[in-house]
Amino acid sequence: MSTPINIKSVAASTSPVTSSIHDHFRNRGRDSSIDIRQPKVLHPLENEGLRLLILENISQDAVATFRGQGYHVDHYSKAMSEDELVEKIGSYHGIGIRSKTKITQRVLKAASKLLVIGCFCIGTNQVDLSAAARAGIPVFNSPFSNSRSVAELVMSELVALSRQLFERAYELRTGVWNKQSKGCWEIRGKTLGIVGYGHIGSQLSVLAEAFGLRVLFYDVVNIMPLGSARQVDSLSTLLSESDFVTLHVPELPETIKMISEQQLAQMKKGSYLINNARGKVVDIPALVQSLQSGHLAGAAIDVFPAEPGANGAPFDDQLNSWASTLRALHNVILTPHIGGSTEEAQKMIGEEVSQALSRYLGYGSTVGAVNFPEVDLRAITTDHLTQIRVCHVHKNQPGVLKQVNDALSPYNVEKQYSDSKGEVAYLMADIADVSPADMLRLKERISGTNANIITRFLT
Description:
Residues 53-371 form the D-isomer specific 2-hydroxyacid dehydrogenase catalytic domain. This protein has 459 residues and is α/β, with parallel strands linked by helices. 32% of the residues lie in helices and 18% in strands. It has a 7-stranded parallel β-sheet, with helices on both faces.
């Protein structure tokens, strides 16, 4: 939880000529009688120590943040298998993962205390989002924090592919001197086709133009381009006009194998394909065939349909049947899912996701949840010590609000907000002047309704 800002300690620069309104606000900042309300630190009614399970080399800053807030944190550097999670998850209220740990329906059934899931990465396809929502568990991620890291990796791959850099470097490491220019190109003046013009694609667009590339992009929605980039009307148009094609789309039913035999045939002869998005977006056997035939001049692949669960594990044909064939191809850059693996990206991801988890556990806010209605209320302040916060996750069905409001009717409801998403709805309410005995009775009444999924009281 963030520390409240002491307004009186903030220095502000002033212009040479100050107006009366500037004087007014400056004088207010100097007035020690002004009441600056501070947020009250909330705790679960049951006063049970919250336990978090953190996996997969998540930022140590995030781990330190959780511990600094009083949570019990168990941190493991590797992913856990489904069986391991089923065995351990039952004692934890929150879990933080990256891309290798899979939160399946079976894991969720074993997670009897679980309140929240944090994906310390962009994607959330490693979590059964609908099953988590039905269990009353919001899932948070960091969709934008590693955008720059991925965009820079793509720029490096453009240059490395066009100069056959990896092949020349490998040859020299094996003692072979092979200085040549045949098939090596500058990227200036070439056309880059970006599939998916979101945060990564748009940042990449700006960097690419600075290198002198012409930029085309294709997206399922109309988007205002940055710089001189131009949106095209179809994927086939982009493929046929681009010297380099780079993918930046999520894994959805409609994007699985969106680049397969037909699409590869539409690409220019001698062009290059880059995939730093999701492993199932490209039909790898079709890509291998296109590279072997010489239709494509090269490729860079950072993500794969199946990936090893830990560093040091083999990337072989047992994992993906075509792995050894792909590894033997010339001018193909293979990297182990490192698109967002920079110190800067991991630090920002750690900050963003840890704050989201802390806001939900401590204040009930679901802003930013990917599978859940987004509900928030302003903080209870320290001058309202008798207020409690009701956080009620329930099935999205008629009559629930009437039941809850009937239960709350003897008390003063200071503020209330609810929203729904699919099968799940979420209500937050702050009520005043509730005795400790009433709190327990009230919680039992609300959690005993037929639509209840999870009810928490924060005091």
